[in-house]
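Late entry, evening session. Most of the bench is empty. Finally got around to the prediction I had been postponing all week. Sequence below, unchanged from the version circulated by S.P.
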Amino acid sequence: MGEDLELPRPLRLLLTAGWNLAESVGLPVAAYAAAAWLDGRDAGLVAGLVAIWLTAVIRKVATGSVPSLLTISAVVLTVQTAMVLATGDLWLFLLQFPLANLCMCVLFARTARGPNPLVAKLAAEVVALRQPATHQPGLHRFFQRATWLWAGIFLLLTASLAVLMVTEPTAVFLMLSTVATVGLVVAGTGASTLWFISVLRKLGLRLRFAPA
């Protein structure tokens, strides 16, 4: 049992993941939608930014730390808001998309070789994955390499969106950027999950739900 990886029971797992996504994505999106409806796009961006940084401050005061997903969302939204509000130029508005992905690439890459790769932190925080008490070098290498994988995915998105930005009309760019982002994120999640299961089998580790 000490060598197993542990996830919360299914309902608890859904609540944990749902809460992390709600505070990192749901709250700023809701604040943006409400403010944009009342006073336009710029007001919505500011409201979303205030909401996510306020959430981060509350988290820091209440728990002493800020979850990685919340930090990532705050950094990306800050960059996007600054780019949009800096000027009314259309190309700067579009530049926020590749630039946000470049920020994501850097955030993943800077932790990939260290003792606490970002994918491992996200797994622990978003789905409350508990690793074995005994250090597993093979499992650590997986999390490092998976972090590099995600850095590569966001770098690929950066390059793809930069090309689309200068070659396609705005409406087509926005549609294709959404398709590319969703497609690569879904593909990366699927590949990471299958890779993770394969590594567990090779290491002789099991993944189980926590006792009731």
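Two things to note before I forget:
The chain has a mean pLDDT of 86.
DSSP finds seven helices and two strands in the chain.
Will write this up properly tomorrow.
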